[in-house]
Amino acid sequence: MHPKAGSFTTNTVFLNIPYDKRFRSLYVAYIAGLVHLGFVPRMTLEFSGGKRRLDKILALIQSCQYSIHDLSRVGLDRNPPYNTPRFNMPFELGLAVAWEKSNQAKHTWFVFEAKAHRLEKSLNDLNGTDPHIHDGKVVGVMRELSNAFQRPGSQRTVPEMLKTFKTISRQSAKILEEAGARSLFEARAFQGLCYEAKVAKRESEFLENSPT
């Protein structure tokens, strides 16, 4: 569903990450972790056509209560044309920062990175901001999501989140087949991952609450 101008939904998280095979496991980890923590992930790959891409990105950021910006991909792109840096992630972070500055009650953004102290060099305008360092690992993403979204009384643990990750990872081939997709970085496949994560979360909660 396309976000509408001026719309706003609580517990939604705009996810700004690389869309490529090398990031696939962390992509699934973000979805699994966010859903398990009770959030709704949103991404630009959900929609196509219509308004220009920039307008859609800005509207989506404005519609979400939170945003996560993964700046761990700082190397040069290996695909032709060669040695091309990728600016999408920091650019979208800039949009989120500008939106938060003018609407502080509506948006909170987080920066995630794979290596400590690298942000001080790659984007030193953010000096003073503490990035969440996930070490390029699934368990690191889960740990830092838990740190970013601490809630009073929350009992969600990293091992529980990893179970959701493993469950939807096993479902990935089925999700691709049912969506007729070539990659998990497509709208139907993204929706399938979110759905399977919700199912896994409900099953986990049911087992937790079942009498022993």
Entry summary:
With 212 residues, the protein is α/β, with parallel strands linked by helices. The chain has eight helices and five strands; from the N terminus they run βαβαβαβαβαααα.
Helix and strand topology:
Blueprint: E1 9-16, H1 24-36, E2 40-42, H2 53-63, E3 64-70, H3 88-102, E4 108-113, H4 119-122, E5 132-133, H5 138-148, H6 158-170, H7 172-179, H8 187-209
Helix pairs in contact: 1-5, 1-6, 1-8, 2-3, 6-8, 7-8
What this model shows, in words?
The protein has a domain at 9-155: 3-Layer(aba) Sandwich (Rossmann fold). Helix content is 46%, strand content 12%. It is built from eight helices and five strands. The chain has helices at residues 24-36, 53-63, 88-102, 119-122, 138-148, 158-170, 172-179, 187-209; strands at 9-16, 40-42, 64-70, 108-113, 132-133. A five-stranded parallel beta sheet has the order 2-1-3-4-5, with helices on both faces. α1 (24-36) runs parallel beside α5, α1 (24-36) crosses α8 (187-209) and α6 (158-170) packs across α8 (187-209). The longest helix has 23 residues, at 187-209.
